[in-house]
Amino acid sequence: MDQYRRIADELAARIADGRLRPGDRLPPQRRLARQHGIAGSTAARVYAELIRRGLAVGEVGRGTFVRAARPPAEPALAEPGDALVDLELAFSVLPDQPALVAASLGGMLRHDVLDAALRPVGAAGTPQAREAAARLLSGGGWAPEPDRVLFAGNGRQAVAASVAALVPPGERLGVEALTYPIVKGIAARLGVTLVPLAMDEDGVRPAAIRAAGALRAVYLQPTLHNPLGTTMPAGRRAEIAALLRERDLYAIEDRVYSFLREDVPPLAARAPERVVVVDGMSKRLAPGLTAGFAVAPPPAAGRVASALRSGGWSATRFALDAVTRMLTDGTAEVLQRAKRADAVARQDVMRERLAGFDVAADPRGYCCWWRLPEPWRAETFVAAAARRGVAVTPAAAFTVGAGHAPDAVRLALAAPPLDPLTAALGALAAIARQNPEDTLTLG
Asked: E strands along 140-226, which residues?
């Protein structure tokens, strides 16, 4: 057996039996080399092997640490967790929602309606769906033509098709330095290189786009950014729109949370010829009943439609008809209004329970970004929270590239009922006020 693998196996065994605990810092490579009488390059291969196995995480300038848990096979947030209180999954289903949905969709079970709904449909959907979607997406000075609306199975698939249409394999897509984790998985599967773009409190910095070199497109979340919860102000949107024109660059504008901030015009309103808008119904309705939308400028529309078809990302007719029915009979708007009020109530609970901590959030959003107090590290905090039955997402899940992930976590406030959410936030606050070593004894 190769020497580096033997040493990696020894360290893996110590992690498995608890002698090395989540968050523990592994010895510097030079010390490991001296301890085992190996070359520095071999020590580097040991740690690379542990990282490959998902047992450790490297942080530039800080060292290598035991990981909180083996990473899931799919990107973070892809599926619900098994924790008692899930603050990872960013979907809300309101208590009275099933009854509202049942009342709206009951008519679909008539045999003549069901006969149509079970037939195939293309990326262009149906005329009724295009009209309903165009009304839904309009606002802030931007109103897409119904014939320009394309349909995907969900918002993620709309993002995937837009990336596939605009960025050929091997080419570069600019993304915010902290971004939606699913985009990292999409890029990996499409052979697209992600280029992290530096951000400030207003969002992605125009100077970062200029300094990034040749890009085929940029993926942005200007409204209620995930994970930061921030919304790009009008001045920065104007700068970005001008830059898109200057560099002849397309932007993919992800607006899946925009229904919570109807007062904010889309980036597409400032540069309609340079922006592909993607949106979806999963956040507005429920993860099990959704459709995605993509609205592209005419030069790119054919490519997006082709990507939807070739990728198998088009919506099904049944889901599309169900969503269209809920949009036209007002059910979707009732749910959206209720979720706006629900998000505000949950943010109020969060501010009360996490008072005194460095938490950034839009008071109308469904998530918050918590910069952890010293000496907490994100991976250690995630492990401590899991021991208390609460699942939270570390900053590393959102970090693009090999740069250092900040010691922060994202809390998704949408899924748990209010009482468990309140208790979970209280538990997290209690953990954060302790020394990390003390939490090892918490039950």
From this structure: 149-152, 172-176, 193-197, 199-200, 203-204, 217-220
Same domain, 337 and 318: no
Residues 214 and 129 grouped into a single domain: yes
Of residues 385, 375, 368, 381, the one with CA closest to residue 423: 385
Q: How many residues does the chain have?
A: 443
Overall pTM surpassing 0.85 (yes/no): no
The residues, ordered by sequence, that sit 6+ positions from 242 with a Cβ below 8 Å of its Cβ are none
Which segment of 72-86, 178-192, 319-333 scores lowest on mean pLDDT? Answer: 72-86
Distance CA(413)–CA(342), nearest Å, equals 10
Q: What residue type is 216 in one-letter code?
A: R
Beta bridge partners of 176: 197
- Cα separation, 417 vs 415, in Å, equals 7
Tell me the three state secondary structure of residue 178.
Answer: strand
Query: How far lies 58's CA from each of 27, 55, 198, in Å?
Result: 12, 10, 21
Would you report the helix, strand and coil content of the chain in percent, each value rounded to 5?
45, 15, 40
Q: Two tokens at 387?
A: 């021991």
* CA torsion angle 70 74 75 81 (round to 10): -70
Identify whether the C-beta of residue 124 lies closer than 8 Å to the C-beta of residue 151. yes
Asked whether residue 195 is assigned to any structural domain, the reply reads: yes
**Tell me: the pLDDT tens digits for 159-178?**
999 999 999 999 999 999 99
For residue 72, being part of any structural domain is answered with no
Residues 306 and 377 in one domain: no
95 inside domain: no
- Is residue 281 classed exposed, middle or buried when 0-12, 13-18 and 19+ CB atoms within 10 A define those classes? buried
User: Are both 167 and 255 inside the same structural domain?
Assistant: yes
Contact 431, 384 (CB under 8 A): yes
Q: Is residue 233 part of a domain?
A: yes
Its domain, for residue 437, covers 85-90+333-441
Residues 365, 276 share a domain: no
Residues 172 and 135 grouped into a single domain:
yes
Residue 277 belongs to what H/E stretch? strand 275-280
